[in-house]
Amino acid sequence: MDPYKIVLHPYVTEKTMNLMEENNALEFIVRKTANKHTIKRAVEMLFDVEVERVNTKIAKTGKHAIVRFKPEYDAEDIGMRIGVF
∠ CA(19), CA(57), CA(65), 5° rounding? Predict the structure, then answer.
């Protein structure tokens, strides 16, 4: 499994920035065929973190995955590492 083929890029809007602050979560555009389990493993491999929960939705812009991190990992720090800010 290549995590770079599953997680395509972060999705950044004002709403997703609020998710980061309030829910310790980031939103990504992912491969349409990816399921929650593979998304979780890919994010854990890419960012060396532990994921608490993954929610997905299909939108016009593709498949979105809202990834909530465990409390010991800060979504803002991860966002800074990947260039969300």
Answer: 50
Cα dist from 55 to 52, 81, 85, whole Å: 10, 22, 23
Q: Specify the CATH number of the domain 3-82.
A: 3.30.70.330
In this prediction, residue 73 carries a pLDDT of 94
| Domain residue ranges in the chain | 3-82
> Which ranges of the chain have pLDDT less than 70?
none
Distance from C-alpha of 27 to C-alpha of 9, rounded to nearest angstrom: 9
Strand order in the sheet with 51-59: 7-10, 25-30, 62-69, 51-59
> pTM of this prediction?
0.92
